[in-house]
């Protein structure tokens, strides 16, 4: 054996002996019934001691009494509800607002959540503003107050009224700068008197310094810093006001991107992190006779329900989302409404021939429409793993491959199997 190898072997034996001897000298031996923890004595050697035993019932009561005292003190100082146990509070359930499309509501877990930030982004003419106005109309129908921050100065009141928005009660602001717009949003949120606030759009929230500067001035990161500060201020009071803040956003292309998506949303990354729901809208095709467009909405992020769902529905020019057609297709998938050939029947009674006529009948009979809609919602929400999956809720892997490199949500957000909810 080589001399250096012998020296290393001797040092190894000495170090092993130094480790074991103190354990034996102190009478500490490992056993299953006596869990041991290695500690370092002041002399620099390792020894073993018993781990701390489980607390006794008296100690548990003492800790609980101390915790209750601290919780009561926090509530006295900061108000009731400042800290709570999730199991003892029923109010932690998140209320939602309908989007106007039944299948999208189900994909979101009931609709857009109150007290949260929502981002809807996509290319031009993909239904972003239409979807947001449907949310405002749904909120007003339940007695809520809606506000529209028109940073783009492009709101069409006549179109909003055709979508069901009560324009007489709609709060509208056309701010001069991004700071003014976000200050208005902050004050409306803190008032706790507004249910929905729509900001159209993030790209139009121009900082005051950029407006007052010259065209040749380089303004780097001003809008991103403005949005980051606004998110920190707004989100703190959102949950208390139970207001849903919807940011509409545009897409930009990153230069020189080889791998991954070249698309990015404007306004920096703060909005992505603070948003509880992010929806990516895309126009798929124009409907026959140019009566509307078919839109695909992808749930890129959802903190309320399962994300990565894709929904298809029609938007008709002049009237908005085809909510009746969306509901009728879902009802036929669950056999709530039976479709035989071109005839539609409900409760063993034929009520219309053709989808257009069936939608007209449902429009004329609100009680029948509400009854079918409630049955569809119950059927969709009660789907369990292993149940037969209808054609309106289909899990497919092809969409993952199709969207892997072409969505603004990023490759990481598009990973995993998506669920498609379609009204076709």
From TrEMBL:
Matches recorded under SMART domains: AAA
InterPro entries: AAA+_ATPase, DNA_recomb/repair_RecA, DNA_recomb/repair_RecA_CS, P-loop_NTPase, RecA-like_C, RecA-like_N, RecA_ATP-bd, RecA_C_sf
Top-level division of the source organism's lineage: Eukaryota
GO process annotations (BP): DNA recombination; DNA repair
Domain RecA family profile: 93-251, 256-326
Gene3D superfamilies tied to this protein: P-loop containing nucleotide triphosphate hydrolases
Cleaved signal peptide residues: 1-18
Keywords recorded for this protein, A-Z: ATP-binding, DNA damage, DNA recombination, DNA-binding, Nucleotide-binding, Signal
Molecular function in Gene Ontology: ATP binding; ATP-dependent DNA damage sensor activity; single-stranded DNA binding
Pfam family name, one: RecA_N
NCBIfam families in UniProt: tigrfam_recA (TIGR02012)
Xref: PANTHER family: MITOCHONDRIAL DNA REPAIR PROTEIN RECA HOMOLOG-RELATED, RECA
Family: Belongs to the RecA family.
Protein name per the record: Uncharacterized protein
